[in-house]
Write a structure and sequence with these properties.
This protein has about 240 residues and is mainly beta. The chain has two helices and 13 strands. The chain folds into two domains: about 100 residues, Thrombin, subunit H (Beta Barrel); about 120 residues, Beta Barrel (Thrombin, subunit H). The protein is about 5% helix and about 45% strand. The protein has a six-stranded antiparallel barrel with strand order 1-2-3-6-5-4. A six-stranded antiparallel β-barrel has the order 8-9-10-13-12-11. The termini are far apart.
Length: about 240
């Protein structure tokens, strides 16, 4: 147990390495259909850090099936995602969870969620790369309103990894984490911690999600503007082939 320096927190933290099963049961997109396997990296009375192969958006709800261990008997807890970031020690993510009381039976999936997850997508063969990524995502254009654009837009909020691959002072070796907020067959919008300039190229790693299977795409920056949150920027770009 550490109680000094940076570890002066509300609840003392215990570093543990314990395998467990978990499942995301409530999120901004499609919840997990089966249990996932992860590991506890550290745990306290107030929450824990979970080692996961998948990334989950803040405010997502996760059911945690803790096995019997020196920490106590087997039990089921619920945690709300507070933060998520790429792990420096393994090929996956660290998920920060806050323990909460949550009644799964009291919050059934709404009919609107069911309609969103069963929406019909275009069945045309869109080819490979970023276009294949939107095959399951992009709804047929209505031809009216704000969606009168070359490629219909689909609003999503999904955590993604990205980095600038344009040679120069902005070139980045390590991945950063941002929020995908807008996606279409032609491009995307993400939140970023740096103000990238026009024509820079970002490599964006999209995880498996309602947007499609996990894959890497390259985006040429078209515009950057300050985001609502201080110190962050919204970056819009179009898909390009790797250089």
């Amino acid at each position: 147990m550490t109680t000094t320096g940076a570890e002066r927190r509300k609840f003392p933290r215990f570093e543990r390495r314990l395998m467990l099963k978990f499942r995301c049961i409530k999120t901004t997109h499609i919840p997990d259909s089966v249990d996932q396997v992860g590991a506890i990296e550290d745990i306290s009375k107030g929450g824990m850090v979970l080692k996961s192969k998948k990334v989950y958006a803040p405010e997502s709800m996760v059911r945690l099936n803790l096995p019997e261990s020196p920490m106590g008997p087997a039990r089921t807890l619920h945690g709300k995602v507070v933060w998520a970031r790429p792990s420096k020690e393994h090929d996956g993510f660290q998920i920060g969870l806050q323990f909460v009381k949550y009644d799964e039976n009291a919050v059934p999936i709404s009919e609107e969620q069911k309609r969103r997850t069963t929406r019909r997508y275009e069945s045309a063969d869109l080819g490979s790369g970023a276009e294949r990524h939107t095959k399951r995502l992009t709804p047929k254009a209505s031809g009216s309103g704000d969606d009168r654009r070359k490629h219909p837009r689909w609003e999503q909020r999904i955590l993604v990894k990205y980095r600038c691959v344009t040679k120069g002072v902005m070139y980045e070796v390590d991945d950063r984490v941002g929020m995908l907020s807008d996606f279409s067959r032609g491009g995307l919008v993400i939140s970023a911690l740096r103000e990238y300039t026009k024509e820079m190229v970002l490599m964006v790693k999209l995880p498996e999600s309602p947007v499609g299977p996990a894959q890497t795409v390259h985006v040429c920056v078209l515009w950057t503007c300050p985001a609502e949150k201080a110190g962050q920027y919204r970056v819009g770009g179009q898909f390009v082939k790797p250089v």
